[in-house]
Amino acid sequence: MIGNIHSIETLGTVDGPGIRYVIFTQGCLLRCQFCHNADTWEIGSGKQMSVSEIMDDLTSYLPFIQASGGGITVSGGEPLLQIPFLTELFKECKKKGIHTTIDSSGGCFSHAKLFIEQLEELLQYTDLVLLDLKHINRKKHIQLTGMSNDHILEFARFLSERKVPIWVRHVLVPTVTDDPEDLEKLGEFIGTLENVHKIEILPYHKLGVYKWEALGHEYPLKHVEPPTEEKVEFAYQMLTAHWKTLLQH
């Protein structure tokens, strides 16, 4: 089984618990204005790698990874564009007792029979989903990513119904995703989910701007500066308010 891979980070520390072997897959349907991996957008390109090649490489890092309570995280791009590959990879990981995580925006979720069947099989071998919720407001989500968020919120509910553990992640972009009313509504939505184990605010940064320029794209948020620590803390309180209430019951 072959996957289209953009790159691999062998000792990642921010994409799930412990030290992670992070695979960035190639291809994404969203066009987030703050994307720091714009070079992963194109579908069908990237380096072709087999499951066995990846497992051979991953195995050499296992002592560090497993000693830290880590595992493998498949990010992107959008990993769910390559479900059969992911399923094959995670099956092999489970044979070695490796913790498996998917980092997804849910951008390609659909109720198509084949997609759901494949996704349900994949989730049998998935320990954790890092779910990137970009924006709760439909219009602003379209403006920010080029797509509506209806199917993304459905994906969140789908995972909740199946009790798949998730960490919710929200990129805090000043003037774009930090409106208190939007944060309040996103917090309310998160409070309806029954599978949230953690909520993370990811402060917006400009580390990916050079990639946009290298690709010949105009970077749309060049005048936006990263948020202050106070803004990040405020957003965290807003997003966790309903969730914490849920935990107490």
TrEMBL record:
Matching Gene3D superfamilies: Aldolase class I
Cofactor: [4Fe-4S] cluster
Keyword Chloroplast: no
Lineage top rank: taxon: Bacteria
Predominant cellular place of this UniProt entry's protein: cytoplasm
UniProt-listed Enzyme Commission number(s): 1.97.1.4
Domain (Radical SAM core): residue spans on this chain: 14-241
Keywords of the record: 4Fe-4S, Cytoplasm, Iron, Iron-sulfur, Lyase, Metal-binding, Oxidoreductase, Pyruvate, S-adenosyl-L-methionine
Free-text cofactor note: Binds 1 [4Fe-4S] cluster. The cluster is coordinated with 3 cysteines and an exchangeable S-adenosyl-L-methionine.
Reactions this protein catalyses: glycyl-[formate C-acetyltransferase] + reduced [flavodoxin] + S-adenosyl-L-methionine = glycin-2-yl radical-[formate C-acetyltransferase] + semiquinone [flavodoxin] + 5'-deoxyadenosine + L-methionine + H(+)
GO molecular function: 4 iron, 4 sulfur cluster binding; [formate-C-acetyltransferase]-activating enzyme activity; lyase activity; metal ion binding
Subcellular location(s) of the protein: Cytoplasm
Entry's Gene Ontology cellular component terms: cytoplasm
EC class (word): oxidoreductase
Family: Belongs to the organic radical-activating enzymes family.
Function per UniProt: Activation of pyruvate formate-lyase under anaerobic conditions by generation of an organic free radical, using S-adenosylmethionine and reduced flavodoxin as cosubstrates to produce 5'-deoxy-adenosine.
The protein's name in its UniProt record: Pyruvate formate-lyase-activating enzyme
